Amino acid sequence: MDETFEGRFARAQLLWGNISARPLRACLSILAITIQVFMVLMIVGLTSGVVSDWGKRVEGVGADILVQPPNSSMFFAFSRAVLAESLADKVSKLPGVDEVAPTLTLMDQKNFVLVYGIDYQRFNALSKGFLFRDGRPFSAPNEAIADDIVAQSKHLKVGDQVSLLNHVFTICGIVVHGKGARYFIPLKTAQDIAGAAGKVSMLYVRSKGDAEAARQQILLAAPNNGVKSVAEYMTLMNSSNLPELRPFIRTMVGIGMVISFLVVLLNMHTMVMERTREIGILKALGSSRLDIVKLLLGETLVLAFLGGVAGIIVTFVVEGILRETTPTLQILITPGWILGALVLALAGAAAGAVYPALRAASYDPVVALAYE
After folding, report:
1. Cβ burial 283-292 (10 Å sphere, 16+ → b, else e)
2. Whole-structure pTM over 0.90, yes or no?
3. Distance of CA 355 to the CA centre of its chain
4. In whole angstroms, what is the distance from residue 101 CA to residue 296 CA?
5. 6 close to 215: Cβ distance less than 8 angstroms
6. What is the rounded distance in angstroms from the CA atom of residue 233 to the CA atom of residue 291?
7. Are 203 and 61 in contact (CB under 8 A)?
8. 10 — pLDDT class (breaks 50, 70, 90)
9. Which pLDDT value is given to residue 288?
């Protein structure tokens, strides 16, 4: 009984003693786990935030049906302008349709911001209209409307000039965000820039109340195009539902686990080599192989947990900084992914500690005690 107690006490001392006696190695292990958790949460948070924000902005336009060319990207920034603008007039005459707004989507690569080319009157009629914080609608080809988030981020005000799509525009109005894009320019100007005369990327459609009936009518009138309800689109606007994002997220998660696995494996292997004599003492005091394995895995899990908590804290600190400095960048960190990132960190660290722990448990007590 005494030997068992002494063995347990010695194992506990070894666990905490190794952490406190070798602070640099412990900090490196914690740092590796912190980086893993931070990377997983930021990658998932950024993708989820962008997708969620994009879905909300599409919903805020006021349409309940979207018409796109076949095989178009769900992310309108990457949709080609191949849809005939004249289709808008055809669709608007359908009995179940109330309003149609042809829209040309363009991505400004330099500023990485989405620009809508719109027919102002038709786009504005989809909902209650733009809510202007300052200024007015555009009345000239080189005028643009900015939403309040990008205006805050870029410190824009009415009358300022901004470079969009390699063209200079004058900001004529600043509106409340949530209408799809960050900038809005005249449809004809967008078509001239894109070299797509008479073409648009999509049609925003508002039905007269029965969205499904209107959608069926549009499918009959334009059978070769993609027609989906905004409600259906919103259910797809989740990073876990988008097949294009799954491999990317899985790759980032895998890289994070590999980082923690390798760092923990190296640290634990070195620690076992340095503590061979102490492990021999534990075995001489009656510790079994399982006791040694549990001791070393316990130490690893303690470090992994500390690193996981640190990674979560760092993630929220960085998220807060980005929210203030780059308000256009949306980050969505869910409780599920916080727990998932912590579990992944513990699993990766435990996997890295298995081999060194098993090797330590196999030491012969006599040989280990003689080790210098």
Report:
1. bebebeeebb
2. no
3. 34
4. 64
5. no
6. 54
7. no
8. low
9. 73
Structure confidence by residue, pLDDT tens digits, 88-112: 999 999 999 999 999 998 988 887 7
Q: Where are the domains of the chain?
A: 2-52+245-369, 70-224
Distance CA 291, CA 303 (A): 19
Q: Are 336 and 287 in contact (CB under 8 A)?
A: no
Cα angle 320, 326, 332; round to 5: 55
Which residues, other chains included, contact 12 with Cβ-Cβ below 8 Å and sequence gap of 6+? none
The CB density around residue 239, as the number of other CB atoms within 10 Å, is 22
Residue 276 has a CB neighbour count (10 Å cut-off) of 16
CA distance 74 to 55: 10
Q: Identify the residue with better confidence: 45 or 364.
A: 45
Contacts of 82 (CB under 8 A, 6+ apart): 69, 196, 199
Checking DSSP bridges between strand 143-147 and strand 167-175, what pairing results, if any? Answer: parallel
Q: Per mean pLDDT, which range of 143-152, 186-195, 362-371 is the poorest?
A: 362-371
Burial class (CB in 10 A: 0-12, 13-18, 19+), 305: middle
How far apart, in whole angstroms, are the C-alpha atoms of residue 246 and residue 149? 29
- Could you give the C-alpha distances from 206 to 6, 86, 91, in angstroms and in order? 77, 17, 11
Angstrom CA distances, 265 to 34, 51, 79, stand at 16, 36, 46
Alpha-carbon torsion, ordered 355, 360, 364, 370, to 10 deg: 130
Q: What gap in Å lies between CA 53 and CA 329, rounded to an integer?
A: 9
Q: Give 107: exposed, middle or buried? Use CB within 10 Å, 0-12, 13-18, 19+.
A: middle
CA 199 to chain centre: 32
The DSSP-derived string for 33-89 is: HHHHHHHHHHHHHHHHHHHHHHHHHHHHT--SEEEE-TT--SSGGG--S-EETTHHH
